[in-house]
Amino acid sequence: MKKFITSALPYANGPIHIGHLVEYIQADICVRFLKLIGEEVLFICADDAHGAPIEINAAKQGITPEQLISKYLKEHQDDFAAFHIAFDNYYTTNSQENKEFADLIFETLRKKGFIYEKEVELTYCPTDKRFLPDRYVKGTCPKCGAQDQYGDVCEKCNSAYKTIDLINPYCAICKTTPVRKNSKHYFFKVSAFSDKLRLFITNHKQIQEEVKNHIISWIEQGLEDWDISRDGPYFGFLIPGETDKYYYVWLDAPIGYFASLANYAKKNNFDPMDYLKGEGSFGHFIGKDIMYFHLLFWPAMLMGSEFNLPSFYQVHGFLTVNGEKMSKSRGTFLTAKEFLQISDPEFLRFYFASNLGSNVSDIDLNWQDYYDKINSELVSKLANFCYRAQSFCEEHFEGKLERHIDENVEKEIQREVENTEKAYSERNLRQAVTHILEIASIGNRYFQENEPWKLIKTDKKKAHEIISYSISIARRLAIILWPVTPKYSESLAKQLNTQILWSSLKKPFEKLSTNKPEIVFRKLEEIPAPKIAADPFSTLQIKVGKVLSVEDHPNADKLYVLKLDTGEERQLVAGLKPYIPKSELLGLHVCVLTNLKPAILRGKESQGMILAADDGKNVVPLSAPHSQPGDKVFAEDLIPEPEPREITFDDFKKIPLIIKNNHATYNGKILQTQMEKIGATISDGAKIR
Questions:
Q1: Tell me: the pLDDT tens digits for 17-26?
Q2: How far is CA 493 from the centre of its chain?
Q3: What is the rounded distance in angstroms from the CA atom of residue 178 to the CA atom of residue 131?
Q4: Is 87:44 a contact under the CB 8 Å cutoff?
Q5: Model pLDDT for residues 80-106, shown as the tens digit of each residue
Q6: What are phi and psi of 413, to 5 degrees?
Q7: Exposed, middle or buried by CB within 10 Å (0-12, 13-18, 19+), for 330?
Q8: pLDDT above 90 as % of the chain
Q9: DSSP assignment of 524-585, as one string?
Q10: E strands of 360-500, at which residues?
Q11: 337 near 15, Cβ under 8 Å?
């Protein structure tokens, strides 16, 4: 049977990080295993290259969307190669093949009456003068009440909804409260497939039970028809016959699996329909955050357009680091490239495999556990056994082997080989690694109990048999570990003079010699946690504050007493009276240092400090007119801790904040909120105090 396997398409709007790598490593290991046992399988993926975020980001950078996605396509491919993730074809959804498949599926569904047009009420930003795509509307989830959720799916409860369903919505670009405006859109009748989807999910033998339960509950709640169009400006494919209506990115993204397959088929002269219809099959590795799209909308589209349905789904959880969500300010948000600077990529492959079971649980990258697992399991138990046996053979027998098998031990080895094969087949990598390590333990125990270093003095023939059988175990380890650590296994197999073939697991003595041993894996000398010193800026908690009132200080001629809304109301005393009249301050959105130790200034408590630029003549408060009270101010990727400690004014003075080109900067990084850069119209070099 012709089969292909996919992993979710990474979005072409940023770098690959270690959270992404969980899935790609998991899928790569499983595909490598299938290829190792002789299955005809392709590993297919692509960059998800459409949508409003790409169009908006490209505009901000002053480049075209095509230039942006081209940049990330190369970066993503380089990152995957560095972690030995071997796609048979890696492509882009912004392709002719994807356009053709999207149009084919759309037109087929439309002809069958599964697509219709309807006027809809949408969120529209009057400030930016555009309809807001899902990811550019945020607010409170209408289902669970979680705040700051996107306009399509809640990241907390995984519920899907419309942008207009959000409670207290706001434009994620400018923070303006959007209005509602009508527009004609295309809808796909997902509701017409409810019964078929229920049967598909219920009877499917390769969907995790916890995933089934989620999907069935969504179906039972009642499926709403799916809006599959978006208004321009939008980077994507125009819908046939339209001039400013585009396919929603989630329509053509999964179709990108087919497009990437078709691209590979074109290069290798076969018909992709061999895989997409009839006897062909395909399966998906995805994260739990995109279950809704992959197990409801996608199979419904396939049912309606008469393509095969996915033969399996492997859904995984999220990655945490040291038990917490990845964080840039804590130094635990690592890109793929950053991880390569602190550790071997195959160590991460082994660690992820050791933690990836068959369920949907989150996995944790705990640095102490990582250090212990690599050193005690991969290096000491497995790699050192192989090197020790090979070195002994080289030293005492010039790498020559005897055909010798200990039948009792061999039964144990073959049992663990079968257990490993079963675990790999069930995509339970944690169990597979457990059984591989058991083979290494059996080998270590056999070597230690038979003491060939003593036998060599009294019974050289027996010692030769012992070390030869130990080498046969090492050869099996090189083969069976290949899906997890391919480069190490290939190096070890070359040294042991064997091939990476599943059939060789039963033929460990095809060649009666080994080659020169080399150490490939060495112990980690220290825990490889990223050595990212806390930047002084991360000690600052700066928030946007709206000035609610301004009064003269009763006991000081140059001071104001202000009330501000910084997400909560607070009182500040500020020395701005000689520079700014009350009327200009009132209603202003300023930047407030909120974790400054409270002080009593001339009898009035000051709970923070308004930041202002001072060039010796003028003093101008830093302003954030388009941000909301309580919005955090950061300097590019230097995001403060959620609750930084209190600091003194002397602490603050040590942090160099200056004005450059009318922007507030820290060490060349521009201060900004999520919506805008922080500015002050004053001469360059003005100090911020």
A1: 999 999 999 9
A2: 33
A3: 9
A4: yes
A5: 999 999 999 999 999 999 999 999 999
A6: -60, -50
A7: middle
A8: 81
A9: -SS------PPPGGGG--EEEEEEEEEEE-TT-TT-EEEEEESSSEEEEEES-TTTS-HHHH
A10: 363-365
A11: yes
For residues 349 and 320, is the Cβ–Cβ distance under 8 A?
Answer: no
Between strands 319-321 and 363-365, the pairing is parallel
Most confident of 63-77, 133-147, 516-530: 63-77
Check residue 83 and give its pLDDT: 98
Please give the single-letter amino acid code of residue 63: I
544 has a pLDDT exceeding 60: yes
Of 676, 677, 657, nearest to 667 by C-alpha is 657
What's the whole-number average pLDDT of the chain?
A: 93
Write the DSSP string, 88-113. Answer: SEEEESSSHHHHHHHHHHHHHHHHTT
Please give the pLDDT value at position 637: 59
What are the φ and ψ backbone dihedral angles of 668, each rounded to 5 degrees? 85, -10
Highest mean pLDDT: which range of 116-120, 125-129, 650-654: 116-120
pLDDT digit string, tens, across residues 593-604: 999 999 999 999
Region 476-481: mean pLDDT is: 98
Alpha carbons within 13 A on the beta-carbon side of 339: 25
* Res 383 pLDDT > 60: yes
| H-type alpha helices, 143-290 | 194-203, 209-221, 249-268, 273-276
| Buried-state track 48-84, b at ≥16 Cβ within 10 A, e below 16 | bbbbbbbbbbbeeeeeebeebbbebbebbbebbeebb
* Cα three-residue angle 381-385-391, rounded to 5 degrees: 155
| pLDDT given for residue 323 in this prediction | 87
Show Cβ contacts of residue 678 under 8 Å, excluding neighbours closer than 6 positions.
591, 622, 623, 624, 633, 663, 664, 670, 671, 672
Instruction: Sheet containing 319-321: give its strands across.
Output: 324-325, 319-321, 363-365
- Dist CA 46 CA 284 (whole Å): 13
Residue 355, token pair as written in the block: 């933690």
CA–CA distance, 484 with 377 (Å, rounded to integer): 14
**Residue holding tokens 């060490």?**
667
Residue 664, H or E segment: strand 663-666
